[in-house]
Design brief:
Strand content: 5-15%
Strand order of the largest sheet: 1-2
Shape: rod-shaped
Largest sheet: 2 strands, antiparallel
Number of helices: 4
Number of strands: 2
Number of domains: 2
Distance between the termini: 22 Å
Order of helices and strands: HHHEEH
Radius of gyration: 26 Å
């Protein structure tokens, strides 16, 4: 990954007598740190994972009568989805 640096403005900051040294050092370290940092892969949920989460967090209420109103445990499903997408 490469980054564009505006050298004339960077040089003017360095040469400016009233520019705080700590602020300059912070800007330089931020620039260097961001250049080498790899971009983490985006987490993507697949249909199979959604199916498994849905099956674990739902059930049929009246299965013996031949009817099956679906009960979904939304709190637990949300917790599982949040855990999946939690930053590492």
């Amino acid at each position: 990954m490469t980054s564009f640096v505006d050298f004339p403005s960077a040089a003017s900051l360095i040469l400016h007598p009233k520019f705080p040294a700590k602020q300059l050092a912070s800007k330089i370290l931020t620039l260097v740190h961001d250049i080498d940092r790899p971009v983490p892969p985006k987490k993507v949920i697949t249909p199979a994972v959604v199916y498994e989460m849905f099956v674990r967090n739902s059930q049929c209420v009246l299965n013996k009568t031949g009817r099956c109103p679906l009960l979904v445990f939304t709190k637990q499903l949300c917790e599982e989805l949040n855990e999946f997408f939690k930053p590492d």
